[in-house]
UniProtKB/TrEMBL annotation:
GO terms for molecular function: ATP binding; DNA binding. Keywords: Aromatic hydrocarbons catabolism, ATP-binding, DNA-binding, Nucleotide-binding, Transcription, Transcription regulation. The keyword DNA-binding applies. Residues 7-66 form the PAS domain. It comes from Marinococcus halophilus. CDD domains: AAA, PAS. InterPro entries: AAA+_ATPase, AAA_lid_NorR, Homeodomain-like_sf, HTH_TyrR, P-loop_NTPase, PAS, PAS-like_dom_sf, Sigma_54_int. Gene3D superfamilies: 1.10.8.60, Homeodomain-like, P-loop containing nucleotide triphosphate hydrolases, PAS domain. This is HTH-type transcriptional regulatory protein TyrR. Residues 153-382 form the Sigma-54 factor interaction domain. One of its GO terms (biological process) is regulation of DNA-templated transcription.
Length: 476
């Protein structure tokens, strides 16, 4: 039985104005008084609440769990998340001790549905953000995989070291530079390296491939245009890359493809640091360093009247000849290791080249130079059926080599440590013995080691062994 409960009228008014629910029960758990918000939260008329035991209200699914019961059980303040009418409520119950009367329980109930929803949305948003951050990291890594680190110029051969010394010196002086060399030797990488080691390194490096842009558009691409310069032009006009490169370096690749009619304008830019945007009558000044590159024979083009002589001499203040890969064959293993590491990581493999395959790399002429070598390695890592890439798996063009010609392959102990070189040799021996003998026991016999020693090494190097290239039985 509930005793009559008296709550001062002014308290009732205050409690009824609250946006949070107030629920008062006696010390046996019978509801004595609730404010208007609480009635709405419970979702039942007042007469179905007052005088009822909280266990009954709970069993009629007006709310669950009952915080009043929890307070009465523990005889201390309790907070709990309640569910009522599919909403989430934070209910905090307090035992209020009374001197003259029986104690009672006061429960303060805050609707936190929207907060929970936004925190869930926040969680979701966070997980989406995390997903994109991870994807971005991966993309960055992939990007790093194919783009050599700017400052990293691979090569230790004498020819390459001499060239490196020259570019180191020229980076410091602000002179115009012409980089010459076959396709894929690294002219663009060198231009960027020069910029990044020069005093202009904090300003933009803007590359433009003269052969990639139609001759008619090249002038506006270089110098920009004023509004209304020609039909189809952007109404506001457009900045040229000369302006974008201000203070930095403009790298003009394939300069041999610069149309004859534009050549005087480039000469004016180089000599007087002046240019006129298309459709403009005013002359602009600029402060940029110009580096150009070509794989054409510019002096022959001059002789044939296809390139202006004065511009040729102006461009060629300092000339850097980048050696072809066949002129620096000692560097081939460095590039092989470099790209093998990159593509093993990218395709989750642990491939190595057999000595014969490395010989093929060393004996091939590489007309496409480093770019071609990179492509061959990527293809081999993708297509090789075992971790040992053998000569037979290489493209036909590489397989044509004189069996009897002395090998040019000398392991580079500066790039590869002795233990890592010996590991490569051991891996090769294991893979080959298995391919030849078809079982781990016979392969171990052939190598003069026990079968368990053989298997230990297979495990150590994580090798996926196959009997032959066409046989897919693997050891594990
Ligand atoms: N010394 C080097 N060290 C590391 N990577 C290099 C080096 N030289 C070239 N590469 C790589 O070789 C590839 C070709 O280089 P790059 O594009 O600079 O050649 P290029 O001479 O400018 O070619 P093209 O004449 O066809 O424009 C790139 O992937 C580049 O990262």
């Amino acid at each position: 039985m509930t005793e009559p409960f008296y709550l001062d009228r002014s308290f009732q008014d205050v409690f009824n104005k609250l946006e949070d629910g107030i629920f008062i029960a006696d010390d046996s758990g019978y509801a004595l008084w609730v404010n208007e918000t609480s009635v709405k939260q419970i979702g039942s008329p007042l007469e179905e609440i007052i005088g009822k035991h909280v266990t009954e209200l709970e069993s009629r699914e007006m709310f669950t769990p009952s915080v009043t019961n929890l307070v009465l059980d523990k005889r201390e303040a309790v907070s709990s998340i309640q569910t009522s009418q599919n909403r989430k409520l934070l209910a905090s119950g307090y035992l209020v001790p009374m001197e003259a009367q029986r104690d009672y329980v006061l429960v303060h109930v805050k609707d936190i549905t929207d907060m929970v929803r936004s925190s869930l949305q926040l969680e979701k948003a966070e997980s989406v953000i995390n997903f994109y951050v991870e994807e971005l990291k991966k993309t960055k890594e992939d990007h790093k995989l194919t783009e050599t680190e700017d400052s990293e110029l691979i090569g230790k051969s004498k020819k390459f070291m001499e060239m490196k010394q020259l570019i180191k010196t020229t980076a410091q002086v602000d002179a115009t530079l012409l980089i010459q060399g076959e396709t894929g030797v690294g002219k663009s990488v060198i231009a960027k390296n020069i910029h990044e080691t020069s005093e202009r390194k904090d300003r933009p490096f803007i590359p433009l491939n003269c052969s990639a842009i139609p001759a008619a558009l090249l002038e506006s691409e270089l110098f920009g245009y004023k509004k209304g310069a020609f039909t189809g032009a952007n109404a506001k006009g457009k900045k040229g890359i000369v302006q974008e490169a201000e203070g930095g370096t403009l790298f003009l690749d394939e300069i041999g493809d610069l149309p004859l009619e534009l050549q005087p304008k480039l000469l004016q830019l180089m000599q007087e640091k002046l240019y006129i945007p298309v459709g403009s009558s005013s002359v602009e000044t600029t402060d940029i360093r110009i580096i150009t590159a070509t794989n054409s024979d510019l002096s022959a083009m001059v002789a044939e009247g296809r390139f202006r002589e004065d511009l040729y001499y102006r461009l060629n203040v300092i000339s850097v000849e980048v050696p072809s890969l066949r002129e620096r064959f000692e560097d081939i293993p460095l590039f092989v290791h470099h790209y093998m590491e990159i593509y093993n990581k990218k395709y989750n493999r642990s491939c190595i080249l057999s000595n014969e395959a490395m010989e093929c790399f060393q004996n091939y002429e590489w007309p496409g130079n480093i770019r071609e070598l990179e492509n061959v390695i990527e293809r081999a890592v993708i297509t090789s059926s075992t971790d040992l890439i053998v000569a037979e798996e290489l493209p036909d063009k590489l397989k044509i080599y004189e069996e009897k010609s002395p090998s040019r392959y000398v392991p580079d102990m500066e790039k590869q440590s002795l233990p890592s070189y010996l590991e490569d040799v051991e891996k090769q021996a294991i893979i080959k013995a298995f391919q030849k003998n078809g079982s781990s026991r016979k392969a171990a016999d052939a190598l003069g080691i026990t079968q368990s020693a053989f298997m230990r090494r297979v495990k150590k190097y994580n090798l996926a062994l196959q009997k032959s290239l066409s046989n897919s039985d693997s050891v594990h």
